[in-house]
Amino acid sequence: MKNNIIKKISHLYPQQDENMIFKSGKEGYWSNLSKQENKRFEEILDNDGAKNAVQSVIPQFEKMIYSEKREAALELLDHQKSGVCIDFGCMWGVLSAGMAKRGHEVISIDQTYQSLQFLKKRAEEDNLNNIHIVQDDIKESKFIDIADYALVNGVLEWIPVLEEVEVDKFYAKSLHSNVKESNTPDKMQEQFLETVFTSLKEGGQMMLAIENRHSHQYYMGRKDPHANLMFTTFLPRPLSNLISKIFHNKPYRNYIYSFKDMKDMVKRAGFKECETYMCFPDYHFPELIISYSNQGLLEYRKYPNENRITTKQKISYYAEYFIMRYLKAKFFAPAIIIVAKK
Amino acid sequence: MISLLKNHQHYSKIYFIEEVDRSNNKKHFIKSSSSLDGITDISTELKGIIWYNSKVNNKINYEICIQKENYIKVKYLEIQGVVPILTKKTYRSNIRYIEIVIDHYCAVWGGDEEKVKVPLHGDFSLLGNIIFMNDEIPVVIDWEHFKLNSAPIGFDAMYFLFELLWFEMSQANDICEKSLSHLKRMLLKLKSANCLNEIFLNRPLEATKEFMLNNNSYWGSQFDKMPIIFFRKEEIYFIDKEININIEI
Question: In Å, what is the CA distance from B125 to each residue of B30, B150, B202, B204?
């Protein structure tokens, strides 16, 4: 299967560089690190390897990159047969590595070259020779009917943002952008899901993870994790747009959705069967993933969370417990995971 | 319907999933892992279950779904029964279950008096690791710390009894005399069934804790959460003294 996959990738992306990364010629930048930090990271990566580079330059991200806890949502997929998986917007590749460990041939696509260089190095260190890396704009990936699995993990909400993103700067005020978006955010997101749909074989599964627009946390004053503003997730879009323009001098484009709207969009993109799950406390480090149904809600229970430190976080957790256990208001669960079949 | 109920909880590196087949309402529990520690724990558990199944009539029903170098997934059929809950009177309120479990221990571990060391369960706990079918027949689960022939006979039973005592003590802030005298009776029962190594006769709690400290690698990263090691010196001295008197009687 491996040779076959490499052949197919080479056919679509004939250019491959000295790091064995397939290239489309399109470049972009989305990273938690600034370009300067990434440059330093790259130097250490070359000399000391992936793990050492993380530990010395970005120790705060070590858990985020290496923790198997983050792979929990992959357990919703059926791994009985090895197949081909495309990890759209793989970044440092925590889920790519997870799928590779489960025995699949993984095609990891991202626009940020430095992240891909890291993944290449990590895959070598971990003896994961079934990860194939492609630098491309995920919105324009060329794969058709090739994958048994597609991962869209924390990616959909960033699709409408076309400018380069250094996360810390993106959160800051008054970021000017010269990029003119061609379409409305929701339309762009739907088009992207159609691209994902196209990449899958008949019967192939997509796993999508995203924050819930109506998470109880946002009603309790937690800032929008993408716009860094209060209340913008659930307010009407024109109002959120206005707030974003006033406070950050840029339009509001990181759309996230309610359970129903997210499922509707996935279905509009062509997917047939959709299993929807609630994820607690978030999809990055899930402690509990249960079906978005009344029966699923019965499985809601207390769960540990080492990041529950401040009084505000504790109150938010008790509020969640009350909302889920007694009000049975699943609509307010913090995050959404959808497993959809082509 | 699939629910991920535990994700790397209590220092383990295992995903714990519940799967309900809506067509026949059968429930399975799945343990899987993609980390080396987790894979080792699940593989160890399988060895423990194989040993346990060879000793009992009510066998644990399992199926290895996937076993690869970097990933393992094992499915267990739900064992329907009662799992006792943690209360402030943990020891006192579970006397009936305690007696059933000690009998079960003697039946499963006993009968091989010649052996210096016997298999170790390692987390022989009433609180979640023993299910009572029809509220009567115990089935021991969670064999992640299993080690063949590596503990003196009686160790798991000691662990079982003292863990309950510790929960009662730490939650009610008191040691009940009734609990202690019952515990003594259980030790005598183990002794008369040849299921208590002599190291536990004079100083049962101290010897239990000592064995754990000397072999902490058996428990890996979970060692720090084992209740027995939280017993303080004075508590150990007091409890051992109380129990010792009765054993001599």
Answer: 20, 18, 23, 17
